[in-house]
User: Fold these one by one.
Assistant:
Number 1:
Amino acid sequence: MSGAIVVSQLGGPEVLEWVDQDPGTPGPGEVRIRHTAIGLNFIDVYHRTGLYPVELPFTPGSEGAGVVEAVGDDVDDLQVGARVAYTSNGPIGSYCEVRVMPRGRLFELPDEISEETAAAMMLKGCTVEYLVRRTYAVQAGDNVLLTAAAGGVGLIACQWLNALGANVIGTVGSPEKGELAKANGCNHVILYREENISERVAEITDGEGCRVAYDSVGASTFEASLKSLSRRGMLVTFGNASGPVEPISPLVLAKHRSLFLTRPRLGDYYTTPEETADGIRALFDMVLHGKVGPHIGARCSLHDVAAAHRALEARETVGSTVLVPG
Ligand code: NDP
């Protein structure tokens, strides 16, 4: 038997319940891994509350890393003892000690990347990879607006955008978060609780505005992000930490000078094994060259995951939170 978190009804953090269960034996094409580190992500909150519907009951969790314990009969390219990690493209369920999953979803880790580092960045880093390289291909000198710049996705995005030579303008909820964002490559911070985002963007960019706005906060920042863009700029609304964005008329995009608007999901950028391998290779390359690396703001026992959810929703976390099984 091994432990897992199960959600049997939607609701607050209290619905995250510990259960003991048999993880099962890997069948053809499957591998059983023992997690050593699990990543916490805002999408886990959306699953728990029902904003993103999942069939009940379910085990949440979209990224993890660990060691291979057993392989199915036909799996000959991964050995017991190999260190592996994965991101969310497929069934969720990383909030557990031991898990059977398809071999195709697992990536063997290079010696230089620890399991903890991988668990802290697989989903967040792959998200940044597709956002800054493929949703809008950021160029050196681009003015870029980034919300939640000191968050899990945010700090990795600051690092990656800085490496691309962008002028990174990040919004943050406190001066401490601002300092952390700057230390990770953010060129300008906007304290949105006391400053007007689009007015500050206009000042920082001499009235030009941003080529692209990466907005993960959603409802409360959507309007400010629109107003912060330059002519024919692109608004990438990729999350809903403050709630989902209300529907808008396309004419709003015309009024703001012919803007582009997209609402991307990782699953639509990591569609095939080749595309996934390319994205993960790009992420690992950035890590191995020292340009990107997750900031682990907190570690928390998997038993205490409800407290970790409360902190994430209360905006108390910075960088990535890692859940420690066992
Ligand atoms: P974060 O670490 O960024 O945590 C959320 C942060 O958002 C908070 O720390 C807070 O920072 C800010 N925030 C602003 N308003 C609110 C609010 N009302 N409630 C809570 N937080 C708020 O989380 P993650 O790094 O895990 O995820 C970031 C975002 O990226 C999420 O919205 C997630 O859904 C999205 N995402 C999207 C993907 C996609 O493919 N579309 C894939 C992966 C993630 P501050 O105090 O500075 O305001």
Number 2:
Amino acid sequence: MGEKREDSASVTRRTFVGAAGASLLAGGAAIAQAVPEVPNRAVGRPRPRDLPAEPLPDDRRLGFAVVGLGKLALSEIVDAFGVTRRARLAALVSGDRDKARRVGARYGVPEDALYGYEDFDRIAGDPRIDAVYIVLPNGLHREFAERAFRAGKHVLCEKPLATNVADCEAMIAAARTAGRKLMTAYRCQFEPHNLTAMRMLRRGELGEIKVVSADIGRAADPTDPSDQWRLDRELAGSGSLFDIGIYALNGARFLLNEEPVEVRAQLFAKPGDARFAEVEDVVAWQMRFPSGVLFNGSTSYSYAFSNSIQVIGTGGIMTFDPAIEYHAQRLRIRAGGQDRVIQWSPIDQFAREIDHFCASISDGIPVVADGEEGLQDVRLMLAILEAGRTGRAVATDWGYRRSADPATTVPDGQGVA
Ligand code: NDP
């Protein structure tokens, strides 16, 4: 289990000791344990001390094919398989055979487990693959999810689930037809700061919540291939809202554990900025929740990197800043006359998310962030864009309720069942 550090003048330091008997991190020092020698496992970053149990033996772990070897896959996901305890990296799918070979050689994926997009359907006959992890541009998620389900595999799909409602619904239907699981890769729902905040809010520790605000954006670089598809409406869906604004939306929803009933928005792109020929730049939006909580947020592909979420209640304030980092979230809580900073030791959110998906497949526990959860965000983002285009409020009370609340489904600080 992860460790949590609280800095406060008025609160004694507390240690959150888990199954592994973790101790307080001195000064936030990074964990630097040696990677244990485990045969046939991907070599990843050092194993965090927070994972409570030893990895399952290889033959009991589920095999994953990672589809699309871009920035996220190569910087985070293939390494995450080095610290998962229920999953193993079994195959790679790429349009670039040489890259796949290089990555395969580094992570121990054999040549006969390297697939291209054309021969992807051959995974149906590969018993080493139980599930695929789709890390492709958003507009390709549906095609590869449907092909994976037809091949009889489970699908973990990066956010946003797809670029439109019809594609999300088709993916959900394909999962049902195939009798396989679909999960949207919302890593923050397995992240200890977020889990801590969710539980505090469920217990009413900030009193009655009044306002949530969030600003999440960055400057898109049109010379970066990884950003080029993000500025293409067909591949991206929309601009920063579908890419990183989605964290503000999804975060507000899971922190509050309720769904917005109305959205309003304004859109802006500076005339002449070629980046925004097809997608929005700034989206500033409001949401009203049934409890009366108001959300106010923005996202942009042209402002400085911004990454914060704040919740204000009658009894206190909680601030995530940064809110969506891969390894270094920070949560400040000012409530009850105390001012605390909670900082868990670095953990691998992707490994937790993958292990949770494995648990849902193998043990039948409910999937946190299932396909419906991904659909809800896509539906809401499209409503926000509609509100921005029309200047009118858009009603969003479609009756959706999440099937599994991470606050009660994901073990504290673990994310693995
Ligand atoms: P990249 O552009 O870096 O990688 C995408 C990869 O997809 C490419 O490298 C390429 O891999 C493959 N690909 C196949 N067809 C195309 C195409 N037509 N255009 C471009 N690439 C193609 O993107 P990211 O890795 O940053 O993002 C991938 C997905 O992950 C997105 O859905 C994004 O929203 C999500 N994401 C999630 C994050 C999170 O924290 N959960 C963070 C970042 C991204 P190859 O060369 O192997 O064929």
